[in-house]
Amino acid sequence: MSALTVAVPAQNSVQRGVIDAYNATRRYLIRGKRQPDIIFGSVLFPVVFVVLFGYVFGSSITVPGGNYHSYLMSGLFAQSTLFASANVAVAVATDMNEGVIDRFKTLPIARSSILIGRAISTMILGLPALAVMIVCALLVGWRPENGIFDAFLGFLLIELFAFALCWLGILVGLVAKSSQSADVLINIPVFLLGFISNVFVDTSKMPVWLRIFANWNPVSSVVAAGRSLFGNTIGPPPAGVWSLEHPEITTIGLAVVIIAIFVPLCVRRYSRTSR
Amino acid sequence: MTSFAISAQHLARSFGETHALVDVSLDVPAGSVCALLGRNGAGKTTTVRILTTLLDADGGHAQVAGFDIATQADKVRGRIGVTGQTATMDELLTGHENLEIIGRFTHLGAAVSRRRAGELLQQFDLVYAGNQLVKKYSGGMRRRLDLAASLIANPEVLFLDEPTTGLDPVARSEMWEAIRNLVARGTTVLLTTQYLDEADQLADTIVVVDRGLVVAQGTPEQLKASIGRPSVVVTLVDADPAALEKVRAALGGEAEIRGRSVSAPAPDGLVSLGDVVTLLEGLGVPIHEVGLEHPSLDEVFSTVTHRAGDHVPGLAAEVPA
Lengths: 275, 321
What we know:
heterodimer, A: mainly alpha, 73% helix, B: alpha/beta, Rossmann fold, Alpha-Beta Plaits, 11 helices, 14 strands, elongated
């Protein structure tokens, strides 16, 4: 109809989906780069945690036959994935209240692409914080005892879990009415999962009911997988807790299940046209 | 095939107990400008959100650019441009980056997107601000950038939801100018507005909506005519009560005195103006001016929306049952 039609290159829907996701990721990375305060905060946070838990609490916690700093680090690495998902929830809720998402919805792009872009860019923007955390860990005496390759596998598992949790954060962000309510909502699971776990202490001295929760807590499996691959494990896993006896497989399985459940939920929620 | 760029039949949409749209039908011929005129909460934005595939309708159906909004939403999305009420530009990106990303999302490819971004910045007088973050843009600049973004792929149909609300008069007339230029290029435009002068200035047809219903539609002239008769207004040299009363009596029962003027309904325009002049000559009253006054769109608007509210069938072109 219009004489000024702009040529649109022909692509199939899969190609277009990949391009859309790439463009969305790119957009979030540019935005991320323009918010140095947020990157600074995300880098500072783990430093504070290593100091706070490693020295303030760590000074009066001893682990039999081991070094508490080494024991603790895997826990802090895993816990940082939880905090990252909380940040995602708030950021997504903020996004949803801005007109820009409405515009994206009127464009002929795959509905999943904006969310995939958000998830992937979150992982990329989280890398500086991870790097700083590793340096801090090395400074306080943590060592990957099983060598570089196993340590790399350990971080890969933790990042896989982080990616899965990212989708939990996205869903909370989509469901929440405002960024404040997203903050409240997401911090309930973050604190329950992050603290009732083996992140800071051995679960064996907890009261029975707490111990059951802590042992079967997915975060505990991730921490155990990290400790196992970093060679920081102290003592045998609690008897009869399959997830802690096979923490690597459990972590991979959990991540896959979380992604398989949450990604479609997120896309459906995002696509729902009515507010 | 239809020659309507937008054709909607009996659109309805409720949010819980709130019936935002009850029954809205409209046809917009290709290449024309249609204004959806109504107060806040009349259903304008809901109509636009439905037509732009942002919202599902509870009832009715519509075609935009020849495609069904419900079953061919992706085809519709590839052919429309939308500028919403809220700013949709990313504050953390530059103007150029914003346009480019929209182009990429419209599958123009990186190179074409960059080229179009440059062209649009030029078209909307934003070249100087192209590399500034949108955060630093003024309200008028943001609206122009938003409009530019809607045009990245040269859409067949453009939706503008209250394009000038909140703009200062200068930015507003700049926006009008930009819209007129688009129309000159053949783009079909559906715009919503609360401003009668905006509808009058820009639109070929006006659809007045109130409480989710179309209460009137037609050209601005038809709507003005529908409210009926122009008035004869006789203004005297000075506000002499006796003279005014003389004129009022001469003009008949329906005449009213307003200040130093007397106005009376003039059912058949110039014929009666001639009669009035003849009549006045015999009175020997000093006359300053005799003229015809047409009803304004404001009067049309308040008349039709008032009628709809009172469930009285209006004079207007169309009142759904």
